[in-house]
Amino acid sequence: MEKMMDLKDILRILNRRKFHFLIPFLLIFFSVAVVAMVLPPIFKSNATILIEAQNVPENLLTSTVTGYVEERLQAISQVVLSRVSLMELVERFDLYKDVRDDLPMEEIVARMRQNILIEPIQANVVNPHSGRPTTAMVAFDISYRGKNPEEVAQVTNELSRRFLD
Fold it and tell me: What phi, psi does 34 have (nearest 5°)?
């Protein structure tokens, strides 16, 4: 007949096989610790820009701005993230100085674009004209990643200033 295992049997099995569990755990733990110590720190700075509706009543002043917020954000992003604009930021803040002599400016600008992230923030709102619930972009985040915390903060501030301008 089969004997049922009780808690004492399980503890005896674990005690006999403790090195089968302990050695892989220690190897994984120390490997992760070494990788965490060797990798350079990456800093990220965020700026959130709130999009407000026009405060002037429509019957007093007709808006010259047409189109959706997403389209306008895309158009502004193309100007702010243009090659000329990013090259000016690289030179102004002396970014990527470790690879500037080795890489062409196109690759440095491409790296900078990879380190910049623009994320829209959506919210559930009620359309004032139709009264129906819908989602709308109410803000967006601009973030920049880099190795130097002061540079990262300065670049993020400059990018957000350019979006606001």
Answer: -65, -45
